[in-house]
Design a protein that fits this description.
alpha+beta; 3-stranded mixed sheet
């Protein structure tokens, strides 16, 4: 979030054939995530595109808009030698991390851990992880 306060979120949900139960579950999950992070789900788009997606597949995307005072932005400009870096454990991949992980797993098989089957790696990359939220 780079010091910003989340304001609102818009989603995009595309399917081959709309299943109201699936759409309700997806949008409910998005709304729950928005509530947890103090922002509003103000709209989005649902697209039914027969022939483009398999029966149980869908495409989901979205974006969030936030606001911050310029003086509150986290730019890294004030980092100095001797500063302390605190690291928190991650719960897994988040947002654009999924795109990078899929790219690494599909183009650089050598990066897949030895104990992880190459067939399992894409499934792990697509696992649903909780939202980081605002720290």
């Amino acid at each position: 979030m780079q010091g910003a306060t989340p304001l609102f979120f818009l989603d995009y949900f595309a399917v081959g054939k709309l299943d109201a139960r699936v759409a309700t579950a997806v949008v409910s999950g998005i709304a729950r995530g928005c509530r947890q992070n103090g922002c509003a789900l103000i709209g989005g788009e649902t697209a039914e595109m027969p022939g483009l997606y398999a029966e149980s597949e869908y495409d989901l995307a979205g974006f969030i808009v936030g606001a911050a005072e310029r003086s509150g932005l986290l730019t890294g400009a004030r980092i100095r030698a001797g500063d302390v870096l605190l690291a928190l454990p991650s719960t897994g991949l988040h947002t654009n991390g999924y795109s990078l992980a899929r790219k690494l797993l599909s183009t650089r098989r050598a990066m897949v851990p030895r104990r992880c089957s190459p067939k399992l790696a894409p499934q792990l990359a697509m696992r649903c992880w909780p939202c980081i939220g605002v720290i």
